[in-house]
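Any chance you could type out a protein's amino acid sequence plus the matching backbone structure tokens because I've never seen that pairing?

——
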Amino acid sequence: MEHILGQRFGRLVALVSTDQRRHGSVVWQCRCDCGKSTLVPTSNLKTGNTKSCGCLQREATSRCLIRNLAGRRFGRLIAIALADRRRRGGVAWKCRCDCGAIIRVTSCDLVSDGTRSCGCLARENKSLIGKANSKHGHARRGNACTPEYRSWHAAKNRCFNPKTLGYHNYGGRGITMCDRWRDSFEAFLADMGERPPGTSLDRFPNNDGNYEPGNCRWATPKEQAANKRPHGKRSDVVTAEER
């Protein structure tokens, strides 16, 4: 059993190991800076997936609730006015999509870029991927995604999905993906080309920069190793999903 007694993880300090196991990890009783106790698996603590008893999320939600978003643009959506009812317990805004549709979206989904259209963007991307599949054969071969698609999808998740393992080393520290690539796998494929065997997606020449044209390459493991962040700061890794 790995001993993390007394170690700090975000707002949590590990106090006592329990007899419980979750996802194959020992569960620790932790004290949050807000004073509450909570049970967290070792794996969640070490990956940064759990940093508080839940108070961080509540504070983030509270910040979303008080924002005036009227007139602001979020992707294809423009917030028009407060909706007449809440969604999932949060304040909802009536939004107009560029395609003309009107939908209700929570404040947090808007400010976190969780919702960027009425759904038309996803439908268009699906259509583009289908065309890429029939034209280029890159989106899917049989039932398996190609290496290019896996790299694009994994990088996109690391930038925008807080539930993704390692998000805190990418989106969590400000690394993002340009709109051209985020909104279209076909555009990513056109800019990057096919992925050579034995390579993976690498941000270069600026390892602290974004996923965008001019700052990405297909790199060998040796090239990836030479492009690491300085020792003590490096914690982002190429995932098995990307490989």
